[in-house]
Amino acid sequence: MLFEVLDLKNNCIMVTEFKECIPDSNTLHQISASGRYKFRLNGKILSINSLVSKISNNDIDSSLGISDMTSMDTANCEHSDDELNAAIDSFAYPITSRTIYCIETKSLFRSQTDAAKEYGLDPSSISYYMSNGLPYKGYTFKKVKG
């Protein structure tokens, strides 16, 4: 089983292969109500009602793990060095030890503070999640070697 939250451009915002990590139905309804996200389960886009029904009825196939996803389109959930290098080549500022990269939006920032301002996030939380390799509120950041 693979659950994904996608933005309107089909960029992966959240992904999990564990049932326990799928948000509850109230949270899913709130996410859906924003009109900015859609859901994919095992490679198939589902309406909010279909998704909640599958979760409520425990009708989720857990046999599919991330290691088994060879036929699924997961390009938007992964990041490549080519994308990072393209972002670096077009970056208007010099790359420093403070420069960070957002994998989901393929954007470079001069600092955590700049990224935090852009996405309305807390800079210290970006630091914590980045150092642990975890996404923070749908964004995954990494340091760019200066």
Summarize the helices and strands and which ones pair or pack:
Blueprint: E1 3-7, E2 12-16, H1 25-33, E3 37-41, E4 44-46, H2 48-56, H3 81-90, E5 100-102, E6 107-109, H4 112-119, H5 123-131, E7 141-143
Antiparallel strand pairs: 1-2, 1-3, 3-4, 5-6, 5-7
Helix pairs in contact: 1-2, 4-5
Describe this structure in words.
It is a single chain. This protein has 146 residues and is an alpha+beta fold. The chain has helices spanning 25-33, 48-56, 81-90, 112-119, 123-131; strands spanning 3-7, 12-16, 37-41, 44-46, 100-102, 107-109, 141-143. Helices cover 31% and strands 18% of the residues. The strands form 2 sheets. The protein has a 4-stranded antiparallel β-sheet. A 3-stranded antiparallel β-sheet has the order 6-5-7. Strand 1 (3-7) and strand 2 (12-16) form a beta hairpin. The model is unreliable at 63-77 (pLDDT under 50).
Low-confidence stretches: 63-77
Continuous helix count: 5
Round the mean pLDDT to the nearest integer and report it. 79
Largest sheet: 4 strands, antiparallel
Strands of the widest sheet, in order across it, are 2-1-3-4
Rg of Cα set: 17 Å
Beta strands, count: 7
What would the principal axes of the Cα set say about the shape? Answer: elongated
Strand content: 15-25%
Question: Structural class per helix/strand content?
Answer: alpha+beta
Helix/strand order: EEHEEHHEEHHE
> Percent range for helical residues?
25-40%
